[in-house]
Write a structure and sequence with these properties.
single chain, 456 residues, alpha/beta, Rossmann fold, Dihydrodipicolinate Reductase, domain 2, 3 domains, nine-stranded mixed beta sheet, six-stranded parallel beta sheet, 13 helices, 17% strand, binds nicotinamide-adenine-dinucleotide
């Protein structure tokens, strides 16, 4: 039996609705907003970056844990409108931060260099805007913004404040596996990249629990914002461009429990050179036919004319992984020519035995260079031999979540542009909004439509 949706008397939900109203009011482009913090210029960070976390639910607490693996920061404040979330976070957080229920009070603190925002999607823009106006550097979780007007509003605001860092929580950009995959694409190692396939399948997916903002359209972009956003960003990165249009089918077909976001989603994005991204999100089956059956749920496939990359960022318990499938062309020898004419190309591939065997993607630590000592070279060869035999797999030196936090603090100190910067985040959010629109309206939605949306 599906659980009943929360009633209008549900206090927590009502609270969320009020917060939504506040956020909506807050994204007017005028800066003269009631309750908005005074405008400040960015504070130059000393060696130690003093930061706060706003929104200490699931993701905020996760970041507080991961900040413990990062040097050079001091957590001075945490904020959540929910007492239980704030209490839990204060037990986890490093540095005994002060707790706040109103983020505006927190932003008024002069000693804070930066804030990390991990609140529900519908609040991202309002809080990010207020933080930037208060002179803080911002790390905001994905999906960066929720509505078309917020895309334009945030771009305009950041243009006025170029010294402030804005980084988005797209952690795959900080993974050595993904960076290596991108280098492989650049070097032509998988030929012309023509297709990507991404999947994030769960069973049973999101269940209906009280106050779950993800299930309601007024607060959430559903599966596209919460899951697809990571993977669309990867397709953009690997193709080196943004989509031209998107089309798709979504439905509330299985979890008829009062939610208003789709519980299954199939999307096709077309890119300017004809490349396609096929992206699938379902809540009824978590089988994954990638990585030789060793994982479930999610992964990305990048397909080129000469090879394929299967890649996943993994979780805290299952490390990131990248496999490379080499796709040789049919061998054209004199003796083979007649045979090839008779046999389909796939048969030739199978007979060479090369088509289906993956090679692990080698990270820089396993690549041999002239600078290696004899011992280090031998160690690398030994490790590579073990990888090839499937005895062990290459592993990143650090969790990409730690790396993204580390690099955020570094950007705050040095002004260095983040890998997942404003434009990466806005393109990603645009893709999320337009994909949902394409499913709602049952049509192709072109990406340049965003330029006309949300403008008066
Ligand atoms: N990068 C990733 O892989 C990843 C993973 C999970 C979640 N996220 C993102 O993190 C964000 C938060 O997700 P979550 O799973 O932690 O949700 P959650 O519901 O567990 O936590 C959100 C918290 O924000 C608090 N909150 C709401 N409005 C607030 C306000 N105005 N001021 C202060 N606190 C407020 C809520 O009380 C709640 O505790 C979402 O945007 C989500 O997409 C990213």
């Amino acid at each position: 039996m599906p659980k009943k949706p929360p009633s209008s008397t549900d206090i927590s939900r009502r609270h969320a609705v009020q917060a939504a109203g506040a956020a909506t009011a807050a994204f007017a482009f005028s800066r003269k907003l009631e309750g908005a913090p005074a405008i400040h210029s960015a504070r130059a960070a000393s060696t130690t970056v003093t930061y706060a976390v706003i929104g200490t639910g699931g993701r905020g607490q996760y970041h507080l844990q991961h900040f413990k693996n990062v040097d050079g920061g001091r957590c001075a404040a945490i904020c959540d409108i929910d007492d239980a979330a704030l209490k839990k976070a204060s037990e986890i957080a490093p540095d005994k931060p002060q707790g706040y229920k109103d983020y505006r009070e927190l932003l008024a603190r002069k000693d804070l260099d930066a804030v990390l925002i991990a609140t529900p999607l519908y609040t991202h823009y309002g809080i990010t805007r207020d933080a930037l106006l208060a002179g803080k550097h911002v790390f905001c979780e994905k999906s960066l913004v929720f509505r078309p007007e917020e895309v334009h509003g945030l771009r305009a605001l950041c243009a006025e404040r170029p010294k402030q860092i804005l980084q988005v929580g797209l952690q795959r950009r900080y993974s050595e596996f993904y960076q290596t995959a991108r280098q492989m694409v650049d070097k032509g190692m998988i030929g012309d990249v023509t297709h990507a396939y991404t999947q994030w399948h769960r069973n049973p997916g999101w269940t209906f629990r009280k106050n779950n903002w993800r299930l309601f359209r007024e607060y959430s972009g559903g599966l596209v914002a919460e899951l697809a956003s990571h993977q669309i960003d990867i397709a953009d990165w690997m193709f080196g461009m943004h989509p031209e249009f998107v089309t798709g089918v979504g439905g509330i077909d299985y979890h008829k429990d009062g939610r208003t976001v789709y519980d299954n989603v199939q999307l096709i994005f077309r890119y300017p050179k004809g490349q396609k991204l096929l992206a699938s999100y379902i809540s009824t089956n978590k089988h994954l036919s990638l990585f030789q059956g060793s994982r479930t749920e999610f992964g990305e496939v990048i397909m080129g004319t000469q090879g394929t990359i299967e890649i996943t960022v993994g979780t805290d318990n299952e490390a990131a992984l990248g496999l490379w499938y080499y796709e040789p062309g049919p061998k054209v020898t004199d003796a083979g020519k007649a045979k090839e004419k008779a046999a389909p190309a796939s048969a030739t591939l199978l007979s060479t035995g090369l088509g289906g065997k993956p090679l692990p993607i080698l990270l820089s630590k396993d690549q041999v260079s002239d600078k290696d000592s004899f011992l280090s070279r031998e160690m690398k060869f030994a490790r590579r031999w073990l990888y090839l035999k499937g005895v062990m797999l290459p592993e990143e030196m650090r969790n990409p979540v730690d790396v993204q936090l580390d690099e955020f603090l570094d950007s705050v100190r040095t002004g260095k542009r983040p890998k997942a910067d404003l434009e990466v985040g806005l393109a990603d959010s645009t893709a999320v909004m337009l994909a949902n629109l394409a499913m709602d309206e049952g049509r192709r939605v072109y990406f340049d439509e965003i330029n006309k949306m949300g403008k008066k």
